[in-house]
Automatic annotation (TrEMBL):
InterPro entries: Glyco_hydro_19, Glyco_hydro_19_cat, Lysozyme-like_dom_sf. The keyword Hydrolase does not apply. PANTHER family: CHITINASE 12 (PTHR22595:SF79), CHITINASE-RELATED (PTHR22595). GO terms for biological process: carbohydrate metabolic process; cell wall macromolecule catabolic process; chitin catabolic process; defense response to fungus. Residues 97-298 form the Glycoside hydrolase family 19 catalytic domain. The active site is at 151 (proton donor). GO terms for molecular function: chitinase activity. This is Chitinase. It comes from Streptomyces tsukubensis (strain DSM 42081 / NBRC 108919 / NRRL 18488 / 9993). Transmembrane segments: none annotated. Disulfide bonds join 170-178, 266-298. Gene3D superfamilies: 1.10.530.10, Carbohydrate-binding module superfamily 5/12 (2.10.10.20), Endochitinase, domain 2 (3.30.20.10). Keywords: Disulfide bond, Plant defense, Signal. The keyword Disulfide bond applies.
């Protein structure tokens, strides 16, 4: 998976319309009874609109759209949290970055990238920005947001600009091929996820069939953010540790750069790119009222 970030291109293009799920009405006592008997969610099972399921952690979801068993924690396009007598989901606004601060950090962001998309995506990564002291949690949040800000021009770009590159991201040597089409695995989302094998690996991890439906990364804000959080929390790239581990261990922001694009930028490769990431991180920690800490560069 270390090839993922090496394939990242530094630009993208706007998506005209964001797909934002509609709110679900507050449940009645009858709805609470429905939640009490809600079956456990099962991957691969067909669900109809209105089906209520209980996820692995006990939280409850209702299907907004029929789907073939997509993970309710992942896809806000198909599922919506359902608060009821069982307690429902944890408050997504427990994130150390408020929506007002998020908007301050990204004043020109594409409407596709929503605060709700980010907080929904975080539910699949409970350690992210919830580990250590309050300062550590805010520093990790600032570090993640600074890096994706750099990658997307301030959460402006959703996909690669140069469409001429799109066909190159299909590795036909893979046994599963490119079922969505030769030119469907181009860079998308906050880390510009690219290549058919990366879409498959991330999709398998998340429980979503991104190999056959890669467009979800540019249609569902939570799925887009999930791909970035997946890399942040699970992949060390060219670095010795993941970006998450770098921030909670005290290794410093510089090691997050190395984990994401160190092969190209660190050790004097592209100092201007490194400085761009550092500047964004300093700005975001200032907004959150915490020190930036040591070891900012790589």
């Amino acid at each position: 998976m270390k090839s993922l970030m090496a394939a990242v291109l530094a630009a993208g293009s706007l998506l005209a319309t964001a797909l934002v799920p509609t709110a679900v009405a507050a449940p009645s006592s009858a709805a609470a009874d429905e939640c009490a008997i809600a079956p456990a969610w099962a991957a691969g099972q067909n669900y109809r609109v209105g089906d209520i399921v209980k996820y692995n952690d006990g939280s409850v979801y209702i299907a907004e759209r029929a789907n073939p068993g997509y993970n309710p924690v992942v896809s806000t396009y198909y599922w919506d949290p359902y608060t009821c007598g069982t307690g429902g989901n944890p408050d997504p606004n427990s994130f150390v970055v408020s929506e007002a601060q998020f908007n301050q950090m990204f004043p020109r962001r594409n409407p596709f990238y929503t605060y709700k998309g980010l907080t929904d995506a975080m539910k699949a990564f409970p350690a992210f920005s919830h580990t250590g002291t309050d300062t550590m949690r805010k520093q990790e949040a600032a570090a993640f947001l600074a890096n994706i800000s750099h990658e997307t021009g301030g959460l402006f770009y959703i996909k690669e600009i140069d469409e001429r590159n799109y066909p190159i991201y299909c590795d036909r040597a893979q046994p599963y091929g490119c079922p969505a089409g030769q030119a469907k695995y181009y860079g998308r989302g906050p880390i510009m996820l690219s290549w058919n094998f990366n879409y498959k690996t991330v999709g398998d991890w998340l429980g979503i069939d991104l190999l056959n439906d890669p467009d979800l990364v540019e249609k569902d804000p939570a799925v887009a953010m999930m791909t970035a959080l997946w890399y942040w929390n699970t992949q060390d790239g060219p670095g010795p540790v993941t970006a998450h581990d770098a921030m909670i261990s005290g290794a410093g922001f510089g090691q997050t750069i190395r984990a994401i694009n160190g092969a190209l930028e660190c050790d004097g490769g592209h100092p201007a790119q490194v400085q761009s990431r550092v500047n964004r991180y300093k700005n975001f920690t200032q907004i959150l009222g915490v020190p930036a800490g040591p070891n900012l560069s790589c």
